[in-house]
Design brief:
461 residues; TIM Barrel; 8-stranded parallel beta barrel; 17 strands; two-stranded antiparallel sheet; alpha/beta; binds ligand IDC
Length: 461
Amino acid sequence: MKRISLRKISTILIAALVLAMLTDCGAGTVSTESAVAKQTMPTEAAAMPSGMEKIAAGETTKDTQATDTETADVKQETATEQKTETSSEPDTVVYARPSVNGQLAESGGKLVDEKGTPVLLHGVSTHGITWFPDLIDENLFHELSADWDSNLIRLAVYSTEYANGDKQACLDLTRKGIEAAIACDQYVIVDWHVLEEHDPNVYLTQAEEFFDTICEEYADTPNLIFEICNEPNGETTWDDIQTYANKVIPGIRKKCPDSLILVGTPDYDKNLTSARRNPLHYSNVMYVLHFYASTHGKDLMKELQSALIAGFPVFVSECGLSESTGDGKIDYRACTEWFSLLRSYDVSFAVWSFSNKDESSALLSPSFDASKPLAGDNLTQGGQWVRELIQGEAPIEIPVPTGSSAAKGTLPAFFCLAGFFQLCPCKGLAVDGAAGAHWAGFRGGAAVHTGSGAEKKASDL
Ligand code: IDC
């Protein structure tokens, strides 16, 4: 892992001090929990908005630092609630690889390896695999693993594409993606990408069939993680999701008894509270929250944080730098806040999307060339930021918007650091800041859409 130079750190710290004097620190927009957490962040990690130390041995767990005052209504028997720790023993978090850490599980609200050691997974999510089939490629996955240091890839299998499209293409690309992930020692989320149909029960039979096929073929493969329903939405309630989960999970467990299963929550994976009130009765289940940093602000952060403090097992299987439409501005300050929060609680994540669609959530440049490295101009600015984030570097060089002009530049490090609330919970560093307001306009080039799907609207995500 590359380290930040001392010069850079001192620049950042000085800048932070200056900024602290200029702003209203202490009247923070974040909770006490975060303020406490900042005191335990090692200096280097503090200078790294992502805090991506791959092995964070010796770090104090963050769930020792506060009690949750908002969860009185959440059932005491929540599987993990009793695990809220009070000790200040150091915790070790390992950046897992399947060949070393084996089958993952949920324990005490955390993602752990086969020996029970807490682990972290960081990676990217594909766009719909049938939308960009050429990107389901072993060489690209290898580069993600070796150069980006990613240990996770999520394969988004749009349920509508399987149910109403070419099942065989969906299965073949899923297999190809799984094989590629195994070949480069990555964990792989097989994501049944519920979206348009709102309620996962709509394609229940197809979901059972899909998971049955994949489980049969990869029964003893520790790399696999099953996400049984991306983003239930519309009128779908947690009860509906439970009904679905109670049918699909036993099917998966018949063939993959030890598998880790991720379960979506209502309102596009934004409502953990409903799941906490009435969790599922299976082991090795984690609940999913998704965010798009340039749209979702403090309310969703609070939803996540209160669940984590209560020891509820959360996995962020999809998140984006962009707005929730998958396009629009990128607010890098908000991104920094979000990924700092994830790091504070050792939450694993996959970033949307490993595609070259001409939209700001895409990590690959619209003119992406697979024969060139997964770096520099072959990536969007967002892609470059995410590469550094996953590599464990501080992605502090962020684009500065200059009105409608196409000029590029960088914001001084302290602007980014200011958003890093664990150092300075400054008032006014709102999640919805406009730092990247015009950023989307910088990108150009033709969209490359090699998949079968027509353009779809995601305006209400
Ligand atoms: C978006 C894609 C976009 C596509 C749209 C509809 O970025 O190209 O047209 O889906 O299929 C989600 C979803 C994810 C969305 C993404 C951005 O899981 O499928 O992808 N998003 O809108 N939830 C919140 C945001």
